[in-house]
Amino acid sequence: MSTLLNDTFLRALLRQPTDYTPLWLMRQAGRYLPEYCATRARAGDFLSLCKSPDMACEVTLQPLARYDLDAAILFSDILTIPDAMGLGLYFSTGEGPRFERPLRDEWEIRNLTAPDPHGHLRYVIDAVSEIRRALDGSVPLIGFSGSPFTLACYMVEGSGSDTYAETKKMLYGRPDLFHHILDVTATAVTNYLNAQIEAGAQAVMVFDSWGGMLSQAAYLEFSLPYMARIMNGLTREREGRIVPRIVFTKGGGQWLEYIAGCGCDAVGLDWTTDIGDARRRVGDRVALQGNMDPSVLFAPPEAIATEARRILDSYGTGTGHVFNLGHGISQFTPPDHVSALVEAVHQHSRQYHR
Question: Which domain holds residue 12?
Answer without folding.
Answer: 8-352
